[in-house]
């Protein structure tokens, strides 16, 4: 008898025959309202599945579970938390292919990039697991007659709200340090791509993370998300998404004095000087806007090129962009897949008319591809100015705007003249220019002669409308933990004595 193992895609469709449920206090449960919402496959907008539609009641149950589980999780030794998080990483790697297929199907991201998403998520869990034992460590601050020392302790139950573009990896980027720090979690994933959040919850449960330590509630931002940001038992909110939503979250958390970490949008420049290695700069500029369908916060969506090399660089760029392979996200040859949702497709396509209206040239693309699914042709805008909408607003699609510049001062002014300040990419072989220019950029992260290559201990975050706070290494623990100071009197120091017997008393005049 031959036993046929279902393909990862068949297995995904089988599991989606039933609605995705919440995971609360170690149990899979439906929404208390009984409601569900639909989510669709970006490749053809067919119904992919349904998920429980959470509201304030579900969030309250999850927050209560996280609150109840917090004391024991906080008290668990860092060594034991480390072992559990390593087990999570091992299970992620064991299911890496299934995760990649699910993520690609659910989000439209090409499978060639999603293959590494699970590996990156496992790396995140291991990285923060290794820091769990030292998470509470502080500083020794001696002074005359006193020893001051600091210790850190987890802040408590936290809310994690993640986006739809690369949800599995980004969920691990938030949840792993929270757990390593000793916090408990209520996770609200994006409603457009809920599948891999469920897989991650399954993996953490299988790994032995205790009931209530991690809770998952599906739903919409206006209901479940708002209830999470307002819940009094949730001490902090870690959010990844657009800047307008980040502003709302900050307002909603104000009444309960929540700490917020906001990783928001970007309109990131890549600046190419005439002394750069132009071939490498071309590869990096293309990769950082057209990979991941252009749906990444660190995408290099503005290309500033020094005028002396501008025309030749744009010629090479246009030829490459026109040759980008668009297609089925599960095809290994595909370089750009469908956008996440018809609403996102409409938003991206609206910038084609905006570009024409402002006088820019659509050198490549500028149109939807086909009538099925959310496909758009990779697009290149030229003859652009920095005051155009296409140069100021986050499009979040495979769309690049090219602007020429003359001097270093011109380039710096253009690079900084946007509301955002998340990332920047600088290409030059002049060492002095590289350092000077990098120091002048209003960006939280700058790569010189490279695309985005992350080193996990380094800070990740932006300036201006690109967010508040930093992820990465010890910077994550600064968010998920409180620092307290303990002062020990070593010298017999005494306070001044007030109200001693026999001392003169104040008299009325």
TrEMBL record:
- Keyword Oxidoreductase on this protein? yes
Domain (Aldehyde dehydrogenase) ranges: 28-486
Q: What are the catalytic residues?
A: 263
Q: Which InterPro entries match?
A: Ald_DH/histidinol_DH, Ald_DH_C, Ald_DH_CS_GLU, Ald_DH_N, Aldehyde_DH_dom, DH_HpaE
Keywords attached to this entry: NAD, Oxidoreductase
Q: Which family does it belong to?
A: Belongs to the aldehyde dehydrogenase family.
> What protein name is recorded for this chain?
5-carboxymethyl-2-hydroxymuconate semialdehyde dehydrogenase
Gene of origin? hpaE
């Amino acid at each position: 008898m031959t036993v046929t193992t279902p393909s990862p895609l068949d297995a995904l469709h089988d599991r989606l025959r039933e609605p995705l449920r919440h995971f609360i206090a170690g149990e899979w449960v439906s929404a208390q309202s009984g409601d569900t919402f639909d989510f669709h496959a970006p490749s053809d907008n067919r119904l992919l599945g349904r998920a429980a539609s959470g509201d304030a009641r579900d969030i309250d149950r999850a927050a209560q579970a996280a609150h109840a589980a917090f004391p024991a999780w906080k008290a668990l030794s860092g060594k034991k938390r480390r072992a559990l998080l390593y087990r999570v990483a091992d299970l992620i790697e064991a299911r890496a292919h299934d995760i990649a297929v699910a993520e690609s199907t659910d989000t439209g991201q090409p499978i060639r990039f999603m293959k590494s998403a699970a590996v990156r998520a496992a790396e995140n869990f291991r990285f923060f697991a290794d820091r769990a034992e030292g998470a509470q460590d502080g500083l020794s601050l001696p002074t005359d007659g006193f020893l001051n020392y600091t210790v850190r302790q987890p802040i408590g139950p936290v809310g994690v709200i993640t986006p739809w573009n690369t949800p599995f990896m980004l969920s691990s980027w938030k949840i792993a340090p929270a757990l390593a720090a000793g916090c408990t979690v209520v996770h609200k994933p994006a409603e457009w791509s809920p599948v891999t959040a469920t897989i991650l919850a399954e993996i953490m449960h299988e790994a032995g993370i205790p009931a209530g330590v991690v809770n998952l509630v599906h739903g919409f931002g206006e209901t479940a998300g708002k209830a999470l940001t307002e819940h009094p038992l949730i001490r902090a909110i870690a959010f990844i998404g657009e800047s307008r939503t980040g502003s709302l979250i900050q307002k909603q958390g104000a009444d309960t004095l929540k700490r917020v970490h906001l990783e928001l949008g970007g309109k990131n420049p890549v600046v190419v000087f005439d002394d750069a290695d132009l071939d490498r700069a071309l590869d990096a500029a293309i990769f950082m806007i057209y990979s991941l369908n252009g749906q990444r916060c660190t995408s290099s969506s503005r290309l500033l090129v020094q005028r002396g090399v501008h025309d030749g660089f744009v010629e090479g760029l246009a030829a490459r962009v026109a040759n980008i392979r668009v297609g089925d996200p599960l095809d290994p040859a595909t370089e750009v897949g469908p956008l996440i949702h018809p609403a996102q497709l409409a938003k991206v396509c609206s910038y084609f008319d905006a570009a024409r209206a402002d006088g820019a040239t659509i050198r490549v693309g500028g149109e939807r591809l086909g009538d099925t699914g959310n496909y758009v042709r990779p697009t290149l805008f030229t003859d652009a100015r920095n005051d155009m909408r296409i140069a100021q607003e986050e499009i979040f699609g495979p769309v690049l705007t090219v602007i020429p510049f003359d001097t270093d001062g011109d380039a710096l002014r253009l690079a900084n003249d946007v509301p955002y300040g998340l990332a920047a990419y600088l290409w030059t072989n002049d060492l002095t220019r590289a350092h000077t220019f990098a120091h002048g950029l209003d960006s939280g992260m700058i790569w010189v002669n490279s695309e985005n290559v992350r080193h996990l201990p380094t800070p990740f975050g932006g300036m201006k409308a690109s967010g508040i706070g930093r992820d990465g290494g010890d910077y994550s623990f600064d968010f998920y933990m409180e620092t307290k100071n303990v002062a020990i009197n070593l010298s017999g120091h005494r306070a001044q004595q007030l109200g001693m017997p026999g001392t003169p008393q104040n008299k009325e005049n």
